[in-house]
Specification:
UCP031900, mainly beta, globular, four-stranded antiparallel beta sheet, disordered N terminus, Phytase-like_dom
């Protein structure tokens, strides 16, 4: 009898929470895979804000917030944990006239997305805009600037950028103009900007990275800053369309000082489940470090 009462109580609570619109506990298991500290003596190394991992889990592109793009291969052990980052090339991104972008207002590159056609897409803060590159060393292709939104200002622009299989870009500002105001989700397709939908904002959590997974879900990396206690991060996923977000789940929430300032997110299938690869921005400070942190999702 007590077991029946417990099951009945759980069922009632489930109905209440669902009706209230509260995000439910994830229906997947989230396993920690490992952390790798990436080091280099190059002056341009650091400040990583975006990352893309190839479908094989080996090839990578990583973007700094000073308009530097690195690419190469990931060295992994037999268990799939990162053991090294082999840099094959690097490029200083240029403007549409072929001039190198300077750090700051024009060169604050934040979001990175790779199209199926190999085109590289980058979102910028400061002068809020997106640019595409057919080749890392080529001049930027200019695109219409996004609409000005509440909360968008210097250092609070489009940090998160993701691309769908149909080639449309999805982005959202780092701030929404108020802790109780949802984030507008922007879509760029066929040369035109539009507001796709809005997603819930939880106070203090700010979006810094995004990707679409092989399961069709939109994955969003968010950050909270705790002063001397450093950063905490969380990852939530949802389905996105014009009717609004659905099937939202908070997959992962880290503790302050557990990791560094995670800003970039790549989502891919490692053959055993969906892998989340995150990279940290060390702000070019000796007290911080560039970390690659990985988790795996299993149904």
């Amino acid at each position: 009898m007590p077991h029946r009462r417990s099951r009945a109580l759980i069922a009632v609570l489930w109905v209440i929470l669902t009706a209230a619109g509260a995000p439910m506990a994830p229906a997947v298991t989230v396993d920690y895979v490992g952390t790798h500290v990436w080091r280099s003596d190059e002056d341009s190394f650091g400040g990583f804000s975006g990352i893309e991992i190839d479908d094989d889990g080996i090839g990578f592109h990583a973007l700094t917030d000073r308009a530097m793009l690195y690419w190469g291969s990931v060295q992994r052990d037999p268990q799939g944990r990162i053991r090294g980052m082999n840099v094959a090339g690097r490029a200083h991104l240029k403007d549409s006239k072929g001039k190198r972008l300077k750090p700051g207002y024009l060169g604050d590159s934040e979001g990175l997305a790779m199209g199926r056609d190999g085109r590289i897409w980058v979102s910028f803060e400061g002068l809020d805009r997106i640019a595409s590159y057919d080749d890392p060393d080529a001049p930027a292709t200019r695109h219409p600037r996004p609409p000005e939104l509440p909360g968008m200002r210097i250092n609070s622009g489009m940090e998160a950028l993701a691309i769908r299989d149909d080639g449309s870009l999805i982005t959202l500002p780092e701030r929404s103009g108020g802790e109780d105001r949802p984030f507008p989700v922007l879509r760029y397709r066929d040369g035109t900007w539009s507001t796709l939908t809005h997603i819930r904002r939880d106070p203090r959590w700010l979006p810094v990275g995004a990707d679409f997974g092989p399961d069709g879900y939109f994955y969003l990396l968010e950050r909270d800053f705790h002063g001397l206690l450093g950063f905490s991060s969380r990852v939530r996923r949802m389905k996105l369309d014009e009717a609004g977000p659905t099937d939202e789940e908070i997959l992962l929430t880290t503790q302050p000082l557990q990791y560094d300032n995670l800003e970039g997110l790549a989502v891919w299938d490692d053959g055993q489940g969906i892998r989340l690869t995150m990279i940290s921005d060390d702000n070019f400070l000796f007290v911080q470090r560039t970390e690659l942190v990985e988790y795996r999702l299993r149904d």
